[in-house]
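User: Good morning. I'm curious how nicotinamide-adenine-dinucleotide would be positioned relative to this chain. Could you predict the structure with it bound?
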Amino acid sequence: MEKAHNGTAMKEASALATAQAQFDQAVQYLDLEPGLVDLLRWPRRELTVSFPVKMDDGTVRRFVGYRVHHNMSRGPTKGGIRYHPEVTLDEVRALAMWMTWKCALVNIPYGGAKGGVVCDPHKLSQHELEGLTRRYATEIAILISPEGDIPAPDMGTNAQVMAWIMDTYSMHRGYSTPAVVTGKPINIGGSQGRNEATGRGVIFTTREALKLLNKPLAGASVVVQGFGNVGSVAALTAHELGCKVIAVSDVKGGIYNPKGLDIYAVMRHARETRSVVGFPGSDGLTNAELLSLPCDVLVPAAMENQITAYNAAAVQCKVLAEGANGPTTPEADAILLDKGVFIIPDILCNAGGVIVSYFEWVQGLQAFFWEEKEVTERMEHFMVKAFHDVHREARRLQVDMRTAAQVLAIGRVADATTTRGLYP
Ligand code: NAD
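Assistant: Good morning! Here's the predicted structure, ligand included:
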């Protein structure tokens, strides 16, 4: 097996293969027409764009990007935009499909979409990043709109990137259209609590899972892979709620302290040095070592396909809280379930972000904004309800949490598709 540069297992299966294998497993529990199953297994439409960007040294470089709509039966499509050197069309298709199921599972009126640009944002200047973003936004403008498809941040993008997309779209329209993206900065129509939503939601569902295992959240040992938007906030929320966060990592490597890390201090260190590595008072470890640390809760919050057939047997957590999308392959799922690991599947665990994105969109359309406490409490309510809906379904069907989540979500999308009927 090849190893990624950070020592973890490389993508051995495409994310799309994982997403479709999960889908195939779940539809066995639903009584759906074969034609409908085939329809839901594939994206509705896909756009590939190839576009030039003027670099700071005066040269022109070509970039490739994608925007995929998976399904829009339940409403406009929703999904993030990823900037990463390994973005592929298959990955974007999988992420779009997961967005459809995620929105249906937490019962918000959206379909699923995703976008991506093949680039390393850390190797671009702010000026180059802005040029790339504005041109990509223009290229995909035929697909995005407040009523049709609303992007948000994902790996490698942030509130500033959303601001540039919103501004580019608005310039073309001739008036401000904040509702075309979510995850915007607060001063141009973003929502309080959006930045923190995904990471907080991860910990809310973790708390519910630990309750089922008769373990309090306070005092639980937590390990987090990835220290970006999702991972850092999950680690911070866990720390604030009394957990012992014993290890965290980013693409450069990990840090470990069995007595618990001061996450505020780790965040300061990461801001100043652009990595968690080298944090004073911690031992270094690789991402592969981090994934196999004994702990109560493991939060993968980086990339897909991190826990695979090759390393699943070494995983030693009680609860796997999937902050990332698709971090666990179907082969690894089977191994973890055999070991008795309680898996909170991605479409449930990391749905806090899209829930607050929905709140941001609603607030923007009404031009009436809520306080952070209200945003977070409403998000928590959606997350806790979805968690128990899934757990109830898992018990009813005698299946794992992932299959139950997919059954509920696919069932709702199929239902909406059937109610709308077949055009023409
Ligand atoms: P981000 O770019 O803010 O952070 C990603 C982090 O992962 C960084 O610390 C990076 O160094 C690290 N990383 C990247 N590759 C790695 C590797 N191979 N091994 C270890 N660490 C690695 O991204 P994010 O927004 O936090 O997204 C992380 C995951 O969460 C993605 O799977 C994304 O799709 C998912 N997600 C994000 C949101 C959101 O609101 N941002 C919502 C739902 C799901």
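The longest helix spans residues 372-397. The radius of gyration is 20 Å.
Let me know if you'd like a different ligand tried.
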